[in-house]
Design brief:
Mean pLDDT: 90
Strand content: 25-35%
Number of domains: 1
CATH topology: Rossmann fold
Bound molecules: adenosine monophosphate
CATH class: Alpha Beta
């Protein structure tokens, strides 16, 4: 496959033009179409009316997964983070891979009751009901720079909660980064003014 081969031969980490102030990572139309072709739509999951973006089909494609990690790592590197934080559960797939590429540590942001040490906790609104996220109080030192990553930005409540958690530790969220953005749900507008938000593949 031509596009896959291109992705393999020329590492996106070496490609020019990844701008710090861009809200999307500037991939070519072919690269975006190729990534979209590896993502599976599951209608009416987990409930009627939701089209679930199944990213397991992208992750199992070694070339696509490697490409995504490389491009996201490159984009994160421009922000000089001290840590990559990932949101449970799918942020635990991308986050450690990106952190490893950058040679920085990984910080898990988890569902309530999972972390063993003292935690900071943020409750947030879901479409129906509320949910919570936690982080260890000593996971990040005050003043450190953190990029928060997750697989997908939908309504934005999860990312905003992660932002609040890291900020409460006295650290700075320098970027919120996603593999996929569902732009029609306006999750970007839920994030604080001025925070860098980027995504690779956008569905309008
Ligand atoms: P939100 O807080 O609405 O931005 O939701 C973000 C989280 O929910 C992410 O961690 C996603 O994994 C998951 N999510 C929400 N909507 C979808 C969707 N349509 N397809 C796949 N994952 C989704």
């Amino acid at each position: 496959m031509v596009i896959s081969d291109a992705g393999k031969e020329k590492s996106p980490v070496d490609s020019p033009g990844l701008l710090v102030d861009s809200t999307t990572v500037p991939l070519s139309a072919d690269q975006i179409d190729w990534l979209k072709s590896t993502i599976r739509d599951i209608p009416d999951f987990p409930r009627t009316g939701i089209v679930f973006k199944d990213l397991t089909t992208l992750l199992r494609d070694g070339v696509a997964f490697g490409f995504v990690v490389s491009v996201m790592a490159k984009r994160c590197a421009r922000m000089n983070p001290d840590y990559i934080a990932g949101i449970e559960a799918r942020g635990f797939i991308l986050g450690p891979a990106i952190a490893d590429r950058l040679g920085v540590g990984f910080v898990p942001i988890r569902k309530p009751g999972k972390l063993p040490h003292t935690t900071e906790k943020v409750d947030y609104q879901l479409e129906y009901g509320t949910d919570s996220l936690e982080v260890h109080v000593d996971a990040v030192e005050p003043g450190r720079k953190v990029v928060v990553v997750d697989d997908l930005l939908a309504t934005g409540g999860t990312a905003r909660a992660a932002y609040e958690l890291i900020t409460r530790l006295g650290a700075e969220v320098v970027s919120l980064g996603f593999m996929v953005e569902l732009a029609f749900l306006s999750g970007r507008s839920k994030q604080p003014d001025g925070v860098d938000v980027f995504s690779l593949v956008v569905y309008d």
